[in-house]
Specification:
Length: about 90
Amino acid sequence: MSGVTDLARHIKARDNPSSYTPMFGRIISLPKLVIQLGNNILLDDSDIKSVFDIYETQERDNHTEYKYLGKEVVLLPYDNDNKFVVIGVTE
């Protein structure tokens, strides 16, 4: 590759950053928030921002439980894929 072609490729990559790709995880622990992403990645509250109240509770059979515990959630990565925004629940 010539230097001009290589430079053009780098400029194009800079001007066209990769889009956000949604990821799916599962809330496996509350109130100490832990979301499992894939088989080996566990995210805690320092890795997560949410657009809804993940800690929402509901009354069932005379006891309180977390509404989203065990549910699958949709996450968008940010900060070079090191942090995530939870944008919704799929189930």
